[in-house]
Each structure stands twice: as structure tokens, then as C-alpha cells.
Write a structure and sequence with these properties.
By secondary structure, this protein is of the alpha/beta class. The chain folds into two domains: about 30 residues, no CATH class; about 180 residues, 3-Layer(aba) Sandwich (Rossmann fold), CATH 3.40.50. It has nine helices and six strands, in the order αααβααβααβαββαβ. The strands form two sheets. Strands 1-6-5-2 form a four-stranded parallel β-sheet. The chain has a two-stranded antiparallel sheet with strand order 3-4. Helix 9 links the parallel strand 5 and strand 6. Helix 5 packs parallel to helix 7. The structure holds zinc ion (ZN).
């Protein structure tokens, strides 16, 4: 494309000109902190999840540290309209994650708040999940989990009761006997994933595993 001549694709870290389908040059790629998590064994994110809900397996692709490249990559995906970053992250994931003969039944991504979706124009997890779905041949469902939201007036009136009793997410379909791989971008407190996991577990005889692009430690 003619645009490529005037605006060539550049490495996120060092600004070298690189192929249009890359995020970073080969030298900077070496600086990315991949976790080398083993999906079937205890790892850092599994220890965190265990404290919040019953968990099967976990995998985090990268590790965040102060100002490191992983952080820049996720920022690019979420705030710089670089939706294609999701595909690249999925490729890096599929090169490192092997489900062996224990593939989950369904991939489910965390739904974005509608306001954020409108601002951003895309859910940063969709292309990532779709690419993984095609690679592993596992179906994905972006509609299984819905965010519950309320009008302002109603929210004020019901605030206390809602905080005490209601989950911010709900399951939209009958689902039972499934092993679900929950997908999110960054694991920090794990509270969002825990809310969703409990809804899935309550909905039927399901199992939950977790996959995130990065873990913030
Ligand atoms: Zn570079």
C-alpha cells in the first residue's frame, strides 16, 4: 500500500521499521517477559485464582513489570486502535500453550462495559479469542456472559441492596457439563474473573479455567 511508504510500521519499542504484521522487531521481541507458565501445573495466576474460586487450569502469556514492553503492547491493543495486536498476541499464545488432550469446551471472553465498547469501537478480546478459537478448534461465545447495568436513578435507589446481593455479571444461556476457558486481557485483582466464574459454576455442573494476556504482579 502507498500508505506504507509514508507511514511505515514501526517497532513499538525502538521505532525501527518492521513488517506490517509485526508489533516489535526481533531484537525487542527478546525483551518481552513471557511467563513460561505450564497450563497444567501450579503457577502464579493459579495461586491467585485459588483464593477466589474453584479453578482447573491457568495460563498467563506475559508478565507486567514497571514500564516494560508487555505493558506497552497491552496499551497498544486497548487504547491505540490497534485491534490487530489481539491476533498477534493470540499467535504468541498458541505457540506457547498446549492443551494436550484436555481442550476446554468453550472459550468465553470478559464482556466490555458498553460505554468502553462505544469509546473504543471494538472489544480488545474478540480478535484474540477468535484467533485462538480457529487455531485450537474450540468454539467461542461472546454472548454467554452479560454485564448487568442499571439506570442512574434505579442504581441510586437500589445501590445498597445491589452491592449486597447481586453479581455485576449474569449467564445468558443454559449451560452445564462444560469446561469453560475464561479469557481476559490483564489479571490484577482477579475480582472480575471471580464474579464471572461464580456465575458459570452456579449455572450448572461446569468447570472454569483462565487464560490472560498478561499478569500484573
Ligand atoms: Zn525494536
Amino acid at each position: 500500500m502507498i500508505l506504507d511508504i509514508f507511514f511505515p510500521n514501526r517497532c513499538l519499542e525502538c521505532n525501527r521499521i518492521i513488517d506490517g504484521n509485526l508489533l516489535v522487531c526481533s531484537l525487542c521481541f527478546e525483551q518481552i517477559h513471557f511467563t513460561h507458565d505450564n497450563y497444567f501445573e501450579d503457577n502464579f495466576i493459579k495461586e491467585k485464582c485459588k483464593l477466589l474460586f474453584p479453578i482447573e487450569n491457568t495460563f498467563a502469556l506475559m508478565q507486567f513489570e514497571k514500564e516494560n514492553l508487555s505493558r506497552k503492547i497491552i496499551h497498544e491493543l486497548k487504547y491505540k486502535s490497534r485491534e490487530k495486536t489481539g491476533k498477534i498476541l493470540a499467535d504468541w499464545t498458541s505457540e506457547r500453550l498446549d492443551f494436550k488432550n484436555e481442550k476446554p469446551d468453550l472459550l468465553v471472553s470478559v464482556p466490555l462495559h458498553p460505554k468502553k465498547l462505544k469509546e473504543r469501537g471494538y472489544n480488545q478480546l474478540h480478535l484474540f479469542t477468535k484467533t485462538l478459537s480457529e487455531f485450537y478448534n474450540i468454539p467461542f461465545d461472546h454472548e454467554l456472559i452479560k454485564r448487568n447495568h442499571y439506570s442512574k436513578a434505579q442504581a441510586l435507589k437500589d445501590k445498597q441492596r445491589r452491592l449486597e446481593t447481586e453479581n455485576p455479571f449474569s449467564v445468558t444461556k443454559n449451560i452445564s457439563g462444560k469446561h469453560i476457558l475464561l479469557i481476559d486481557d490483564v489479571f490484577t485483582t482477579g475480582n472480575t474473573l471471580a464474579s464471572i466464574a461464580w456465575e458459570i459454576l452456579k449455572a450448572g455442573d461446569n468447570k472454569v479455567s483462565v487464560l490472560v494476556m498478561a499478569i500484573d504482579v
